[in-house]
Amino acid sequence: MKTTQQIVESIDSRLSELNREIETLDAARSALGSERASRPTPRPRAAAPAQARKPTRRRARRKTSRSGDVVPSGRLELLLSENGGMTTTALAERTNGDRDQVLILLRELEAAGKIRRSGQRRGTRWHAITDDDRIRERAAELAGRRRRAA
């Protein structure tokens, strides 16, 4: 468990790191010819004693590839008809496509009445609309008309 002093030193270290980054970004903005008058210059903070400082290590960021295969909508329909409900991410992985492109195609297929979605946000699953689903929906519609007529 960290002591209070260690927590304070950690906060000070992070603040000085952020202040350096702000200065770098302000210098870059100035070099591009755009001054920000509304942002005050950050004041320097008192540095922790030299013996208490630890060198900061930066984590290497993993480069994400946004380029995936172009996914045909027929492939998505086929996958959904073979499997039950699938998430957008799972479909993108199975087709080796870009998640955003897959999501756009799924919404277009939904608007065309070929698939439906269930759940919300991260729990969203996509399902193919089968002939059984259409028959069940039509039967419910006819039953509702019959009740209203009687």
Description:
This protein is mainly alpha-helical and about 150 residues long. It folds into two domains: about 50 residues, no CATH class; about 60 residues, Winged helix-like DNA-binding domain superfamily/Winged helix DNA-binding domain (Arc Repressor Mutant, subunit A, Orthogonal Bundle). Helices cover about 50% and strands about 5% of the residues. It is built from five helices and two strands. A two-stranded antiparallel ribbon has the order 1-2. Strand 1 and strand 2 form a beta hairpin. The radius of gyration is 28 Å and the shape is elongated. The termini are far apart. The model has no long low-confidence stretch (mean pLDDT about 80).
Fold blueprint:
Blueprint: H1 4-31, H2 73-82, H3 88-95, H4 99-111, E1 115-118, E2 125-128, H5 131-149
Helix pairs in contact: 3-4
Class of the largest domain, according to the CATH hierarchy? Mainly Alpha
Task: Return the CATH topology of the largest domain.
Answer: Arc Repressor Mutant, subunit A
Examine the secondary-structure arrangement and name the CATH architecture of the largest domain.
Answer: Orthogonal Bundle
Number of helices: 5
N-to-C series of helices and strands:
HHHHEEH
Q: Biggest sheet: strands side by side, in what order?
A: 1-2
Largest sheet: 2 strands, antiparallel
Estimated structural class:
mainly alpha
Shape: elongated
**Mean pLDDT, nearest integer?**
79
Ranges with pLDDT <50 over ≥5 residues? none
The CATH homologous superfamily of the largest domain is called Winged helix-like DNA-binding domain superfamily/Winged helix DNA-binding domain
